Amino acid sequence: MKHKDARAALMPLPPVDRAHQVTAALADYIQRSNLVPGDRLPAERELMAALAVGRSTIREAIRHFQALGVVEARKGSGTYLLKPISGATIHMPLSLETTHLRDALLKTLEVRRGIEAEAGMVAARMRSSHDLKKIEEKLNEMERVHLSKGTSGPEDLAFHLAIYDATHNPLFRQLLEQMREAFERFWEKPFDRPDFARRSFPFHRTLFNAIAAQDPEAARGETLKILAIVEEDIKEMSK
Description:
The protein is mainly alpha-helical. It folds into 2 domains: 18-81, Winged helix-like DNA-binding domain superfamily/Winged helix DNA-binding domain (Arc Repressor Mutant, subunit A, Orthogonal Bundle), CATH 1.10.10; 101-236, GntR ligand-binding domain-like (Four Helix Bundle (Hemerythrin (Met), subunit A), Up-down Bundle), CATH 1.20.120. It contains 10 helices and 2 strands, in the order αααββααααααα. It has a two-stranded antiparallel sheet. Strand 1 (71-74) and strand 2 (78-81) form a beta hairpin. Helix 4 (101-126) packs parallel to helix 9 and helix 9 (201-212) runs antiparallel to helix 10 (216-237). It is globular. The mean pLDDT is 86.
């Protein structure tokens, strides 16, 4: 790590939307401190004290940058910058300026449809036996929770993330991370309806079967079935 004669000041933040503010503050800090790829970021404790936020908030911001592939945590050594970033880079989250959940979900769905369908196809071609085991574990947990609770938002998301990882293309994860706030609305009981997209439940198993069979077209078809139900429920439940 190169010696830095003068570090940029890290100012405490007001208690509003801390995770997003910390993410932006870290990006700004990295730019102003002239940190370059290979440099180590300040320790968690130093960041916590400087920004007056808790460890979990700092870790969430670091995880965000890790998911984007711009920092790397090295066990026993610290967190290192892999790529130059700033508050103005494309690595900051993308979001929609809309007050209507229906419109936000439909616009996000247009993007999600392309990403999810392609991810399913690529995963079917590229998945390893280890990937398949991870996807099935997430699917089994999703089905277990769904059958006991009638809904399984976080577990459903984990299943889709496992498919992204099976593509062996980090851009799928990075795109999701940039749009996480918009995408996660699908798994947070939209319209306060725990039955949102419930009819898509069986197609997650058939999607897994298509990926297991290494059948890209079938994977695409099952993905589109899931998202067609999502679209129907957005329109129906927002009336």
